[in-house]
Structures are given as structure tokens and as C-alpha cells.
Amino acid sequence: MNYLHSAVQVAPGEAVLVELDHAANVKVMDDSNFARYRRGEAHRYFGGHASQRMTAIRPPRPGRWHVTVDLGGYRGTVRASIRVQ
Prior knowledge:
The chain has 85 residues and is mainly beta. It has one helix at residues 31-39, and strands at residues 4-10, 16-20, 24-29, 46-50, 54-57, 63-70, 80-84. A four-stranded antiparallel β-sheet has the order 1-6-3-4. A three-stranded antiparallel β-sheet has the order 5-2-7, with no helix packed on it.
């Protein structure tokens, strides 16, 4: 599977902001769920299909999080900007 990935450090009260050039799947996961995602196994995440240009996802706790952007197996490309605010 092709995907964009970024690891971010989130402090209390912060959100992950993802800016997309078109609709895509945006997932925020902890380390163990990201490992499952990479292996193609069932995993838990925050987020989902994002059809808006800007998506904000607030993880439930501070710490290290993995952000992925993918097209769900469809062909094409997506550009994304990922930051914490």
C-alpha cells in the first residue's frame, strides 16, 4: 500500500492539522496500531475519510503519534501538509 507518513509529537490540548490537495484517508495512530497498519492488519485510529481541504484531529492524549494519508487502494496521488497546533 502506498501512503504518506509523518511521526509527530503532540502536547496536551494540541491537534494534528492535515491539509490535503484532494480527498483522502487521514489516520492518526499510536506506535502499535501503526505497526499493524503497515502489516495490513486490523488497526485502530482517529480520523478517517477527509473530503475537506483542512482536517484537524485531536488525539486523546499527548505523546508520539503517527499520521498517515492514503487513497484507500485507489490509484492517484495526494499531497499533504502535516503539522501540530
